[in-house]
Automatic annotation (TrEMBL):
Keywords, in A-Z order: 4Fe-4S, Iron, Iron-sulfur, Isoprene biosynthesis, Metal-binding, Oxidoreductase
Protein name: 4-hydroxy-3-methylbut-2-enyl diphosphate reductase
InterPro entries: LytB/IspH (IPR003451)
Reactions this protein catalyses: isopentenyl diphosphate + 2 oxidized [2Fe-2S]-[ferredoxin] + H2O = (2E)-4-hydroxy-3-methylbut-2-enyl diphosphate + 2 reduced [2Fe-2S]-[ferredoxin] + 2 H(+); dimethylallyl diphosphate + 2 oxidized [2Fe-2S]-[ferredoxin] + H2O = (2E)-4-hydroxy-3-methylbut-2-enyl diphosphate + 2 reduced [2Fe-2S]-[ferredoxin] + 2 H(+)
Pathway note: Isoprenoid biosynthesis; isopentenyl diphosphate biosynthesis via DXP pathway; isopentenyl diphosphate from 1-deoxy-D-xylulose 5-phosphate: step 6/6; Isoprenoid biosynthesis; dimethylallyl diphosphate biosynthesis; dimethylallyl diphosphate from (2E)-4-hydroxy-3-methylbutenyl diphosphate: step 1/1
Catalytic machinery residues: E129 (proton donor)
Species this protein is from: Bariatricus massiliensis
Binding site for [4Fe-4S] cluster: C12, C99, C195
Protein role: Catalyzes the conversion of 1-hydroxy-2-methyl-2-(E)-butenyl 4-diphosphate (HMBPP) into a mixture of isopentenyl diphosphate (IPP) and dimethylallyl diphosphate (DMAPP). Acts in the terminal step of the DOXP/MEP pathway for isoprenoid precursor biosynthesis.
Enzyme Commission number(s): 1.17.7.4
Sequence similarity: Belongs to the IspH family.
Cofactor comment text: Binds 1 [4Fe-4S] cluster per subunit.
GO MF annotation list: 4-hydroxy-3-methylbut-2-enyl diphosphate reductase activity
Amino acid sequence: MKIIRAKSAGFCFGVKRAVDTVYEQVEKEKEKQIYTYGPIIHNEEVVKDLEQHGVKVLREERELDALTDGLVIIRSHGVPKRICDKLDGKGIVYVDATCPFVKRIHKIVKEESEKGSHIIIIGNPEHPEVEGIRGWAANDATVIKTPEEAKEFSCEDVRKICIVAQTTFNYNKFKELVEIISEKGYYISVLNTICNATKERQTEAGEIAGAVDAMIVIGDKHSSNTQKLFEICRDACNNTYYIQTLGDLDTNQLRSVETVGITAGASTPNNIIEEVQNNVRINF
Ligand code: F3S
């Protein structure tokens, strides 16, 4: 059997940086209780390993409110400005591991909204990254996810609109939504803030899926970028399987195939990808 593993499978730069930051702080700050604000990445295996290293996850803002000491690490998705202000106000030390590409969106949103632009974020309103981005706008921002929402959008007394995107949003959907909003006659500036890592991973995954008999997509079930990868691969290859770890792989599914493609979401650790790849190589 031939295996094609996507070069772009696994941790992206921002996720690797955030995870490394937590392990570095575990080593450095042995006396302090280390917290991450939300799970550091969407991957249960990594979060479990960090728990074994004593790292606790703050799952809600009120847990942060109750905190009196310790060290808080902000994950790659970033947080609303309010959270940074709160940590500063409480005098709690924090390490900001927000991905620099997300940080750049915070800066754009803050500056443009302060200049009077209305901010539109193209993305999923429930995703923590989008909640974070929204929280840097000086006035209330609009989040648009679907063509219907784009069609319905209207905003009175607005001189200028600034559109940004969730870093993991699908580029073609982003373009479609921007076109709908552009027809409304506002003065618009569009900043394509979709991360290249996502686009490259999606393009490569689609190409591989189109050339193999079966495709394996590895990632946590809560990871939105893995879900999108799965959709892209499934469109190109009917035999596409979404697994979290090797344990989810149904060995019968690969019995009669000659070529298998493997890709993985941005929050999938390398050891999980290798385990799957080695197992497929040995057993089929
Ligand atoms: Fe950053 Fe792009 Fe990853 S925005 S967290 S490098 S997907």
